[in-house]
Amino acid sequence: MKTIQCVGILTSGGDAPGMNAAIRAITRAAVYKGLKVKGIYRGYKGLVTGEIKEFKSEDVSNIIQMGGTILKTARCKEFKTEEGRKQAYENIQKEGIDALIVIGGDGSLSGARIFAQEYNLPCIGLPGTIDNDLFGTDITIGYDTALNTILDAVDKIRDTASSHERLFFVEVMGRDAGFLALNGAIAAGAEAAIIPEFSTKDDQLEALISRGFRKSKTSSIVLVAESELTGGAMHLAERVKNEYPQYDVRVTILGHLQRGGSPSANDRILASRLGVAAIDALMEGYHNVMIGIENDEVVYVPFRKAIKNDKPIKEELVQVLAELSI
Amino acid sequence: MKTIQCVGILTSGGDAPGMNAAIRAITRAAVYKGLKVKGIYRGYKGLVTGEIKEFKSEDVSNIIQMGGTILKTARCKEFKTEEGRKQAYENIQKEGIDALIVIGGDGSLSGARIFAQEYNLPCIGLPGTIDNDLFGTDITIGYDTALNTILDAVDKIRDTASSHERLFFVEVMGRDAGFLALNGAIAAGAEAAIIPEFSTKDDQLEALISRGFRKSKTSSIVLVAESELTGGAMHLAERVKNEYPQYDVRVTILGHLQRGGSPSANDRILASRLGVAAIDALMEGYHNVMIGIENDEVVYVPFRKAIKNDKPIKEELVQVLAELSI
Amino acid sequence: MKTIQCVGILTSGGDAPGMNAAIRAITRAAVYKGLKVKGIYRGYKGLVTGEIKEFKSEDVSNIIQMGGTILKTARCKEFKTEEGRKQAYENIQKEGIDALIVIGGDGSLSGARIFAQEYNLPCIGLPGTIDNDLFGTDITIGYDTALNTILDAVDKIRDTASSHERLFFVEVMGRDAGFLALNGAIAAGAEAAIIPEFSTKDDQLEALISRGFRKSKTSSIVLVAESELTGGAMHLAERVKNEYPQYDVRVTILGHLQRGGSPSANDRILASRLGVAAIDALMEGYHNVMIGIENDEVVYVPFRKAIKNDKPIKEELVQVLAELSI
Amino acid sequence: MKTIQCVGILTSGGDAPGMNAAIRAITRAAVYKGLKVKGIYRGYKGLVTGEIKEFKSEDVSNIIQMGGTILKTARCKEFKTEEGRKQAYENIQKEGIDALIVIGGDGSLSGARIFAQEYNLPCIGLPGTIDNDLFGTDITIGYDTALNTILDAVDKIRDTASSHERLFFVEVMGRDAGFLALNGAIAAGAEAAIIPEFSTKDDQLEALISRGFRKSKTSSIVLVAESELTGGAMHLAERVKNEYPQYDVRVTILGHLQRGGSPSANDRILASRLGVAAIDALMEGYHNVMIGIENDEVVYVPFRKAIKNDKPIKEELVQVLAELSI
C-alpha cells in the first residue's frame, strides 16, 4: 500500500457533541506527523459533490468547546448507489486523499466499510453517536454530554412541586438502545426507565402502574426512550390519563436538544485520544477499523464487528436503578 | 389595626425559581425587624389543614440557590369555598399570624384578595410566576430563570446539523402570555415566535410558511407558546408534515423543566428586594397590595389592579425579532 | 450631513459577553434598512491598520450565543495620537464608511468622542462592559452574564464543607465600581461585599472582622472587588491569617473567566435592542450619543454625559445585603 | 463474625461532588436489604462526639443532585489519638452499628484502616476525592465533576480577547496528582499543564517559555496544579512578568469552587454503583476493602493497596496534549 500523505475527514449521521474535538485532534495529529488534511463537508454528500477544503492547524482552533460539527452532516442517498460512490472516489483521487476518517454511528461506518471494500481505500472509523450503541468501544463520542444534558433537564423537573400522584414522562433519545434512558434514570434519581431492550413499552408501563410507581408520597419521574417517531411519551401519557385519571401526568420531550451543547470533559478527552490514535493507526498501516476505547485503552475494532454486534445493557445497572428508586 | 408581630408565608400556584430566595428574604427581614415568621406548607392547603411551622433565620440558610419552593405548592379546592377559608382563618388565629404574605401568580393573589376582604387580614402579594403576566411589575420572580432555561435549550438545538429545510418547533410555557416565547426567540436568535397575543396559532403558522420561514439556507427554529394542553407544537408539526412534506420537522416540548433550576442572579436579587420590601410595607401599614418593581424601584400595586389588567407585549420587541431574523 | 449608506462597527476595551449579539443586531438591522456594514477588527487598531471587512447578514449567523467578540479587541496606542487618528480617518474614507458604531466601555467611548469631534464623523456608542459603570444606562452589555458567572462560582463554594470559622474570599472584577461584588453578594447569599465605593478595603475588612463576620455557625463568604492589581484578595487573606489565626481562610480569584461565557438572555436581548436602536438613531440623524436603556426604554445619552458621570450604588441594595446576611 | 444489621456512614476529608449520591445509594441499598442505617455527622468527629442519627429512605430523597455532603465533613484531631478512637468505638457500640462505611480520600481510608484493625470492626471505604489519586480504582467520586468545572472556567477564559502574547495561568487543585491539570488541559484545549509528577514547577515554566509557549498568534492558557499553598500560580506569573515583560500575564485561582457543584452524570452513576456494591460487599462478608471500579467492573481493593500505591499519569495523555497544542 502506498504511503499515506493526505487524510480526508468527514462527519456523518446525527451530530454528537465532541465531533469538533475529534476533527481538531485528527487535524492536529496529522499536521504534527507531517500529513495533509482535507475536510469534507456534509458527510458523504460532500464527497460526492466535491465540497472539500484543506485544513490547517489554525482551522481547528477554538472549536474543541463547540457542539455540532464544523464539517456539518447530511443524509446522502447518492452515496448509497454505486454511481454515487464512483463519483465520490473520483473526488478522492482528484483531491489526492489517501485515506478517509469517518466520524459517526452505525450507518456511517457501514458506508465507510462498503466504500473501503469497493475502492481499496484505507478507512478509519471513529464512534460518534450520543446513543452509545456501537459494539467494541466502552463509550462513544457524544454519549456523556447527552447524558448530562438529560440529567440537567430531569434535575429541573424534580425541583417543581412535589405533590402526590404527579407523574412526569421525559422522552429521551435511543430508539434502539436504552443507555441514555437507563443511565439517565440512575443519575437523575428517577423512578424508572422504559427502554427498548425489555418488553414493549406498553407492557413496561403496565408493570410500573401495577406497582404503583412508587410507594413514597412525592411525584414520580419516568424516562422513556423514544419510539420510531418522536412523541411516543405523549401516547403513554394519554393511556395513563384515560385509565388512571387520579394521576396528574406531564410530558417533556427533549428531542434534538440532546444532540447539542458544549461537549463534556469526557467527550473531549475521548475524542482527542481517538483522533490522535486514528492517525497513529493509519501510519502503522491499519485500515477498515473503528478506533474504540476498552478498559481505558485504545483498541482497533474491525468494521464488521463494530457494526454487526449489539452492545448489551449491564444487568448490574438495572439492579442499581431498582434498588435506589424504592 | 393591631401591630404586626407574626407573619405567615406561603407559596401558591406553579413553582417559579426564586420562590426560595423570596422565602429567605421575607424570613430574614422579618427576624431582623423583630417579627416572628411562620411557614405555611402546600399553599392555601396548609392554611386549611394547619400544616404550619415556625421559621427561624437558619431555617432559610442555604436555600437561595435552590429551584422549587421549600414550602411546596399545591392546588386547594377547599380554599375556594367559604367553609375552607373559615377553617384557614381559624388556623391563622390559632397560630397567632397577624399578616399573610403570598408568593404566586394571578390566581394566588386573587385568593389572597378575597381572603383579606372576608377576614380583614393584612395580606401582601409577591409576584411569583415564570410567565411574567402580572400587571404592575416590570418583571416577576422566576421569569428570568425560565427565559435562560429556554435559551439554553434552543442554543443546543441550534448546534445540530444545519441542513436545508429543517424546521424545529420548541414548545415553551405561556398559555396566555407570549413573553417567554417572544423574548426567548429574540435571545436565542430563533426565526419566529407563535404567541397567544396575535392571531390563532394556525394563522401564525400559515404566515410563517407563506414567507418560506427564512430565506437563508440553514434550519429554522420557531418558539411556540403552549396551548390549553401541552403538545400543541406536535399538532403544528403534523400540519406542516402533511401539507409541506419537503420540510423535515422536529419537535421539542420543554414542559415543566422550565419551572425548575437554580434561580438566576436577577431572580434572586428581585426576590430579595421584594421580600425585604414586603416586611417594610407591612410595618408601614400597607396591606392588600402586591409588591412589584417598576423602573428599578419598589412599588405597591393594589391587588385589583395587578389581577385585572393585562400586561402588554412591547411592540418594539416584535420589531426587533422581525429585523434580526432576516 | 450626507445620507448614511455604510456603517463601520468595532468592539473595544475588555470583552463583554453579548458583544457578538450586538454586532449581529447592528449588522442585520443595517442590512434590513438597506445599509452596507463593515466590520473593523481589533478595535481602534484595525481602524488604524485598515483591518476591515464587509459584513453580510450571514456573517453574523450563529454568533448570538458566543462569548467574546468575533471582531476581537486590542489596545491601541496609535489611536491616542493625532497621527494615528488621521490614519484611521483615511481608512474610514477609503472604505467609504459614513458612520461608526463603537461597542465598549468608558475609554472606548472617549476615543469615539474625540474622533467624532476631530473629523466630524457620526459616531454612536453602545455600552459594552461587565462592570456596569456607564452613566445614562440602567445596565451595560455583559453585566448580567458576569453576575451569573460569579453566582455560579459562589454557589459551588457554598456547597463545600460548612465548618466553623472558615472564611472564603472571592475576588471579582470591578476596580472602580462595586456593582458585581455587591449584587453578586446579594444574589449568592454571601455575607458581605468589599467594594471601592466605601472606605478602604482594609477598613472594610476590619469592620467585618470586628462584627465576627457572622453570628451563625457556618462558613462565611466575602466578595471582594479587585484592586489595581489582580490578587488583592490574597493580601486580605494574609492579613486575616496573621492577625486571626483561628480563621481558616481560602481564596478564589475569578479573573478573566468573568469576561467570557455564553451571554445570558438579558444580555442578548439588551444587545439586540441597542443594536437595532443604533441603526435607527443614525437614520434619524443622531450622532455622538451612547444608546442606553432607562426604565426599559431606549434612550440616547450624549457621550460627555455617559463618560463624565459616575453611576451610584443604590442604597437600598446595601441595606438588602445587610438584612439578609444576618 | 456476627451478622450485620446496622451500618454507619460518614464522609471525611475534602468534599467531593457525588458524596450525597453515595450516601443515598448506601442508605437505600441497605434499607432494600433490610438493614438499618445511621448517618454520622462531620466525619470522624461525629463518631467521637456521638453526632449520629438514623437514616430512612426518605432522608436521602432529593439529595442525589446536590454538591457537598449532607453529613458534612470536618478535620478531627481526636480520632488520631487512641483515646479518641476509643470514644468513637464506644459510640459505635452504643448506637448498635455493626459496620462502618467511610467515603473519602487517602487520609480518610487510612483512618478507617487503623480503626478497623484496633477494634475488629468491618469497614468499607468508598473513594471520594476530586483529585482522583487513589490506587485501585480507575476513577474517584467527584473527579469528573471537578474536571468539568475546570473546563467550564477555561472555556470562559478562552472566549476573551485573543491578542498576541497574552498568557493565562489557571490554578487548579491537585497538590500531589496532576490528573485535573493534565486532563483539564487536554479537554480545554489549553497549551500546557504544569503538574507535580514532572520536574519542579519553575523548571516546567522555563521549558514552556523557552519553546515560546506556542507558535500561533492567539493567547496561551496554562493549567497549573496548586502547590503546598494556594496562590502558587501567582508566583509563576510574577516570574514571567519580571523576566519577560512582553507577556501580558493574567491569573485565575479556582480554589474551592472545584469542590462544589451538582455532580455530573458520571459521578452520580459511579457513586450509585459503589454505594450498592458496598452493601453487597458487607453482606458477603468482605471488610477492610475500598470499593473501586476497574474496567467498568466493581472491584474490592484491600485498604493497604489503595493507600500505599501511587496512581500513575498515563503517558499517552501527555503525548495527546503535546500533539494537540501545536
Question: Could you walk me through the main structural features you see in this protein, from its secondary elements to its overall organization?
Answer:
Chains A, B, C, D: InterPro entries: ATP_PFK, ATP_PFK_prok-type, PFKA_ATP_prok, Phosphofructokinase_CS, Phosphofructokinase_dom, PKF_sf. Chains A, B, C, D: Catalyzes the phosphorylation of D-fructose 6-phosphate to fructose 1,6-bisphosphate by ATP, the first committing step of glycolysis. Chains A, B, C, D: Keywords: Allosteric enzyme, ATP-binding, Cytoplasm, Glycolysis, Kinase, Magnesium, Metal-binding, Nucleotide-binding, Transferase. Chains A, B, C, D: It catalyses: beta-D-fructose 6-phosphate + ATP = beta-D-fructose 1,6-bisphosphate + ADP + H(+). Four copies of one chain form a homotetramer. Chain A contains eleven helices and eleven strands. The first copy, chain A, is an alpha/beta fold and 326 residues long. A seven-stranded mixed sheet of chain A has the order 3-2-1-4-5-10-11, with helices on both faces. Chain A has a four-stranded parallel sheet with strand order 7-8-6-9, with helices on both faces. In chain A, helix 1 packs parallel to helix 9, helix 5 crosses helix 6 (179-188) and helix 6 (179-188) packs parallel to helix 11. The radius of gyration of chain A is 22 Å and the shape is elongated. Chains A and D meet through helix 1, helix 5, helix 6, helix 9 and helix 11 of A and helix 1, helix 5, helix 6, helix 9 and helix 11 of D.
